[in-house]
Amino acid sequence: MMKTPENFEVPAQVREMAEKGVEQARKAYDEFASAASEAASKAEASAESMRNGAVDLNKKALAATEESMNASFDLATNLVKAKDIQEVLELQTKYVQSQMQRFGEVARELGEAATKTAVDATKKD
């Protein structure tokens, strides 16, 4: 077995190098921790923006669905009251035209809302 010297001293240069190494490691860790914290904050903000955007899209889609259902019920009510086939065809034609126009508007609104959500989620502070 090897004996350890009783008065073992670390040379000053080695001690200095070790201290610098620890200092550099601490600095690197602090920079890493700061960057990780900033990334987490940005990800959280982005996720919050996406959640808010999804809620907005859901509300718009639900409102459009409700509007469409009400129009369908109105059509059904008017069809029951129609006096002849000509009036039925007119009511049906107007309904289809108005629904197609509204579907186009809803698609545009949802597209704009989705684009806004994506832009807001990727904004850099």
In short:
It contains 2 helices and no strands. It starts with 11 loop residues before the first helix and ends with a helix. It has 125 residues and is mostly helical.
Architecture overview:
This protein is mainly α and 125 residues long. It has one domain (17-122). It has helices at residues 12-81, 85-122. Helix 1 (12-81) runs antiparallel to helix 2 (85-122). The longest helix has 70 residues, at 12-81. It is rod-shaped. The relative contact order is 0.10. The mean pLDDT is 86.
Order of helices and strands: HH
Number of helical segments with 4 or more residues = 2
Q: How far from one another are the termini?
A: 63 Å
What is the molecular shape? rod-shaped
Query: How many discrete structural domains?
Result: 1
Q: Hey, roughly how much beta strand do the residues contain?
A: under 5%
Radius of gyration: 34 Å
For this entry, what is the oligomeric state of its chains? single chain
- Per DSSP E runs of 2 or more residues, the count of β-strands stands at 0
Spans where pLDDT lies below 50 across 5 or more residues: none
Instruction: Report on the biggest sheet.
Output: none
Helix content: over 70%
Q: What's the mean pLDDT score?
A: 86
The secondary structure category is: mainly alpha
